[in-house]
């Protein structure tokens, strides 16, 4: 590579996104005091650009504007320019995204915001083309106009930014109103189900026409709704909606049929043409959802998809030290000699390529049938490409095919006169060949940042899959990742989590000069992961760490006046707002998960004030839960768990004994959204016995592993039969 002509301060950062911009002619600063001081000293406006390393439009804006010498000069002359990786600093992103959404009605990345020297926003948007077009003002024009305004109308701008900030403070506040109590579970559950049911796509699954997102929070809610309404038509519909959506997603192009795992979202109604980036948080949550689908239905199809996701993550998103990387990009070079990246280039195929790779005749099929014919028929491949030009505005996929399983295997087998088992073997052979061919292509960029929150989601995915599929290897992988978090993303001196660490030179794990402290989302997803990992592994050390982190979360983030948790600590003066997220999105909002975590923590510790705290969170969100529960399906689910009281399933027995294992297998094979599992192994000095004195009174019956179902530490009669236990586990 040629020697770069420019280098700015971002060269000293660890974030892959910031490093992507280290050679722009823009004099970028990272978010921090040096930039703030410069803006104040020179009385300059701040231009804040927020994105992430696998964001397609962030790449486009960089190519068009931030690499332009001329635009760089305008930016450097008039502004102090700050670059932020939204995955590293979700706190900064959220404050200014709240502003952009409130003032423009939309949001997204790259986010472009102009701030006064004291960090107050007054203008903003997302992607800007470099030059004026018919319908849009160009970036250069916007820069010059804003610089002019600052020169001519500084006082008016400052006044307007102050007004905007006050309005944002008022509209973004979530707090308990008067003597509010948690909303009633039945009404909130029913309203949420009806709202989801109305937006459900009967043909293809999912909850909108297009674009279509995986939304694990909706599926998780539907599974719980089914579990609590199993004998009603609404319950049956909830289950059908969830399972059909998961099946259609897995058949679609959203699912990578050759390289495994799931892409970010579908641009069309059919789950066919995806936006090709792959995010860790999607893999973690979807592994958990497909595990639940298998647990409920017993259909091996879902178990296969779980294995598919975890194979992808183990192979492509795993650091050798045990952590998980954040994402793979959508864009890559089509060939080793290409000079321009294209979206989806790593994943798509021409019919000609497939014929050349799969020329073998198929025995037992009609004369002249090749592997290519069978594969292309099954995956909807067309000679001219199978991508609708309307879904490909930049013609990047012209003539290409995104694989989508168009018909059930039985029909493909019948068409070619093959046994279903034989077809499965043939398709597997094709997939292996295509996988080898794809390995020769230039890979998309890998974001090797490791985030506590997303690692937590992935640990939950591995732990739940390991328990449900009885795959010890998955549980071990979850434990390896949890040990990684304890080593690299936890400060034992302060007892606090850190947000991020990075793959360094020679595959070492590095930390930035000033580590970023963990946010609320880091705590809730890691605590949830540790509870899931305890239930899968029965290692009490994970439980002990989870309870320590829950105490720390209370100390750092709890709002004693308005209730619920703030997303950030109070100690950062550069953050103008302390917010509480109020919408479940690609990930659940932290307060939604915090409710269930608090209830689980109370069951494992006997601290009943945690149950009270869970109720206070629901009270703070009560109005939203009753009016538009569809925006918070995970919190609606938690409301049901709160009102139904968690069952403590206690198994007294030797964890290594076959009778205990049989009972554990039974517990793991039943979907019960309102249970926590613990094993009383007779070690009275152990952590659980110290936390829960009532365990000492429970004993084995006739020397056999014995189960007790307890509620608020009051236990049922002992059960030694697996059949009886199964009956007692149903919600």
TrEMBL record:
Q: Known Pfam families for this protein?
A: Thioredox_DsbH (PF03190)
Swiss-Prot/TrEMBL GO biological process terms: carbohydrate metabolic process
Q: Can you tell which superkingdom this protein's organism belongs to?
A: Eukaryota
Q: Which Gene3D superfamilies match?
A: 1.50.10.10, Glutaredoxin
InterPro entries assigned = 6-hairpin_glycosidase_sf, 6hp_glycosidase-like_sf, Ssp411, Ssp411-like_TRX, Thioredoxin-like_sf
In what residue span(s) does the Spermatogenesis-associated protein 20-like TRX domain sit? Answer: 7-168
User: Any idea what this protein is called?
Assistant: SPT20 protein
Organism source for this protein? Molothrus ater (Brown-headed cowbird)
């Amino acid at each position: 590579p040629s020697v770069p002509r420019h280098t700015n301060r971002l060269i000293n950062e660890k974030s892959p996104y910031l490093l992507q911009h280290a050679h722009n002619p823009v004099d970028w600063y990272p978010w921090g005091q040096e930039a703030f001081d410069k803006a104040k000293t020179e009385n300059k406006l701040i231009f804040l650009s927020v994105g992430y390393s696998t964001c397609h439009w962030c790449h486009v804006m960089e190519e068009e504007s931030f690499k332009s010498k001329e635009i760089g000069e305008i930016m450097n002359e008039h502004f102090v320019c700050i670059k932020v990786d939204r995955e590293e600093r979700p706190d900064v992103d959220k404050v200014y995204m709240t502003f952009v959404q409130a003032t423009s009605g939309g949001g997204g990345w790259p986010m472009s915001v102009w701030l006064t020297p004291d960090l107050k926003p007054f203008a903003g948007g997302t992607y800007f083309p470099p030059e004026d077009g018919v319908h849009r003002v160009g970036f250069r024009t916007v820069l010059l106009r804003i610089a002019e305004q600052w020169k001519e109308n500084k006082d008016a701008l400052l006044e307007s930014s102050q007004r905007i900030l006050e309005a944002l403070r008022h509209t973004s506040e979530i707090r308990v109103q008067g003597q509010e109590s948690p909303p009633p579970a039945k009404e909130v559950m029913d309203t949420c189900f009806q709202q989801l049911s109305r937006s459900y796509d009967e043909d293809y699954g999912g909850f909108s026409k297009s674009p279509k997102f995986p939304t694990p929070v909706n599926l998780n809610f539907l599974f719980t709704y089914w579990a609590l309404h199993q004998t009603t038509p609404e319950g049956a519909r909830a289950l059908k909606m969830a399972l059909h959506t998961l099946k259609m997603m897995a058949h679609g192009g959203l699912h990578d049929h050759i390289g495994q795992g799931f892409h970010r979202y579908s641009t069309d109604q059919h789950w066919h043409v995806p936006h090709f980036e792959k995010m860790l948080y999607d893999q973690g949550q979807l592994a958990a959802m497909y595990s639940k689908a298998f647990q409920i239905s017993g259909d091996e199809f879902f178990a296969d998809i779980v294995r598919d996701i975890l194979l992808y993550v183990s192979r492509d998103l795993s650091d050798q030290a045990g952590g998980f990387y954040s994402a793979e990009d959508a864009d890559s070079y089509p060939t080793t000699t290409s000079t321009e990246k294209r979206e989806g280039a790593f994943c798509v195929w021409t019919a000609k390529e497939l014929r050349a790779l799969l020329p073998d005749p198929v025995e037992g099929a009609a004369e002249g049938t090749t592997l290519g014919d069978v594969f292309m028929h099954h995956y909807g491949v067309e000679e001219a490409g199978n991508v609708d030009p309307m879904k490909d505005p930049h013609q990047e996929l012209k003539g290409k095919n995104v694989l989508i399983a168009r018909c059930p295997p039985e029909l493909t087998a019948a068409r070619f006169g093959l046994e279903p088992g034989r077809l499965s073997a043939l398709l597997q052979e094709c997939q292996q060949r295509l996988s080898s061919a794809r390995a020769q292509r230039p890979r998309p960029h890998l974001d090797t940042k490791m985030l506590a929150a997303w690692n937590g989601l992935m640990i939950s995915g591995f732990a739940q899959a390991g328990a449900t599929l009885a795959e010890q290897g998955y549980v071990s992988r979850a434990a390896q990742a949890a040990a990684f978090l304890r080593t690299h993303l936890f400060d034992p001196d302060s007892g606090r989590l850190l947000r991020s660490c990075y793959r360094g030179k020679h595959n070492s794990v590095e930390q930035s000069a000033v580590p970023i402290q963990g946010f609320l989302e880091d705590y809730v997803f890691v605590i949830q992961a540790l509870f899931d990992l305890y239930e899968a592994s029965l290692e009490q050390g994970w439980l002990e760490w989870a309870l320590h982190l829950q105490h720390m979360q209370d100390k750092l983030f709890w709002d004693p006046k308005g209730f619920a948790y703030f997303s950030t600590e109070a100690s950062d003066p550069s953050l103008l707002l302390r917010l509480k997220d109020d919408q479940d999105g690609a990930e659940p909002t932290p307060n939604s998960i915090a409710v269930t975590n608090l209830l689980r923590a109370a069951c494992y510790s006997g601290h009943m004030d945690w149950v009270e705290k869970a109720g206070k969170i629901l009270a703070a969100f009560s109005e939203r839960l009753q009016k538009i529960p569809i925006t918070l399906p995970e919190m609606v689910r938690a409301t049901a768990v709160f009102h139904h009281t968690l069952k403590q399933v206690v198994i007294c027995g030797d964890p290594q004994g076959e009778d205990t294992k049989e009972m554990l297998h039974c517990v793991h094979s039943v979907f019960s959204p309102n249970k926590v599992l613990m094993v009383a192994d007779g070690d009275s000095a152990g952590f659980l016995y110290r936390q829960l004195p009532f365990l000492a009174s429970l004993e084995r019956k006739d020397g056999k592993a014995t189960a007790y179902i307890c509620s608020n530490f009051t236990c049922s009669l002992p059960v030694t039969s697996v059949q009886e236990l199964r009956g007692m586990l149903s919600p």
